[in-house]
Structure formats: C-alpha cells, structure tokens
Fold this sequence. Notes:
Blueprint: H1 9-16, H2 23-31, H3 51-60, H4 64-78, H5 81-93, H6 114-134, H7 138-141, H8 144-152, H9 169-172, H10 175-184, H11 207-210, H12 212-232, H13 236-239, H14 242-253, H15 261-270, H16 275-291
Helix pairs in contact: 1-4, 2-4, 6-8, 6-10, 12-14, 12-16, 15-16
Amino acid sequence: MRPSRLFDTELAARLAGYERVNLAAMTEELCGYSLAKGHGAEDWSTTPLPQEWLAYAALDVELLLELAEALAEILDQQGKLTWLEQDCAALIADTTPPRHHWTALKGLGRLRSGEQRARARSLWQARDDLAKRIDVAPGTLLSDKVLLAIAAEPPARPGHLWTIPGYSRRFDEHSRTWFEAVKQARALDPAEDTAPAPSPVPPHSRWPHLAPRAAALLSEAKEAYRLCAENLGTPAENILRPKIMRAAIWEFAEEENIHDSADLRAFLSRRGARPWQVEISAAVLGPLLWGFPRV
C-alpha cells in the first residue's frame, strides 16, 4: 500500500525547530492534550493484538490531523512548508525496499572466520523463515546480538545455549531451530558469502590519515552547516544528510569530479537531496569548495 499524500508530523516538527519531536511532546505543546501512557513498550508483533492495545493505538493517533494542521501553519509562517512537501513527496516516490539480507546484521564484522560467518548466515535464515511462518518480527525470536554470539562460539548442545550472554526464555522456545541452523552451516557454500560492495567513500574517521584535505574541508563544512542550522532553526542533518555532505566533499577533494555549482547541484540531486536542500547547500557548501585550494 502506497499513500497518495503524506504529512510526516515528526519531520515537520524537526524542520520547524522543535527539540522534542515525539508524538506525546508535540500534542501537548501544540494541541494541549497529554497522551495516555500504557502499552507503548509492548511487543507489537504479537498476533492477534489484544483489544485494549488496539484501543490504545487508535487513541494514540486521534490527534494527528489536528497536530498536522498546527504544524503546517507554523511551517508556512516560517517559509518551510514547501520543504516538508518536497520531503514527503520524495518519501512517497521512494520505491527502494528496505535492506533485508544477512550481511546487514549489525556487528557482523566482528566475525572473522568463514565458519563463524556461515553460522551467522544459517541462523539468520532460520530465524527469518520461522518469523515469516508464524508472522512475528525476527528480532523477537532471537536478537541480532545473541545470534552473533551463538555464531561466534556455538555451544555443544541445545541446553548449553543458556551460556550465551543475553539468551532468554523467549529465545529458548526455538532452541532446537537455532541448534539445527548451526549444524546446517557446515554445508553452506563459502562462495555465497558475499557482502555488499564497500562504499567508495571511506569512513570519515579515517580521513585525517587517508585524505587530510578532505578532512579539513569536512571540518569547515560541519561548522558552516551548524551556523546555517542556527540561523534557519532547523537541524543541520535535515538541511543536508551528513552522508550526502561527506560524499560531495569526497567527490570534490579526492575524485575531483565537481568543478562548479552545476556539478555540485547535479551531484546532490543524484544522491537524493531535495530541491530545497540543493539550493541551501549550493549557498553553504559551494563557497567552501570553490574557495578551497586545489593541489
């Protein structure tokens, strides 16, 4: 299901400059109502959902339209309503599916051997298949942290899974599934152990050693966006995603593929920056690039 219209109240609150942008804080600030607390921390992958949870969820969004109207008026007064409209339109148009692959496991890089990675892959697949079969979120069956711990040092018997830090009674309901996945990992083809292609832009923490010029430019750009954010009353990361900013700087300083404002605007647009972000960044980042000495 894809909506034809969208108004993201959290994003609107960020653009408007509010520090606390969660639903409860915003409805209290702009609508004068305090939301009831009760089931927010429940496991919402439970099926079927209890009736009292459904009532809680319905009441939780009852004020959304009123909140959206209030935020739209504020953004209009600030001259930022078109910013939100462009952001929401881009969200609707984005058909990229969320990344769903075992190599997306957070912390996978700590597993060095092929055997460990094969076990992680087998456990991830077993967990994913089970989650689809019983219609629950995979993380409720076995957390990523515990999955990787089992893959790193698998116990000798299912009953020994309790020696894994973080292993719980909830995870133990399917202990034989996890143990069987560990055994099946021996039959996996190592050639299929393919991680996504690394980004052409290295982690910025390494820039001072790998690319001092780019690191210096990045430092100046961060300060420029900080000042811009203060002036506009909008967080710097909403003015331009840090990942896009770093990519533009790397493309200019190291790849030398950005030569003028037209190049910069085209690059930012290709990377997903909205038209309003491109305009502001051309005025904030552009002068830094053109004034930076080339080698």
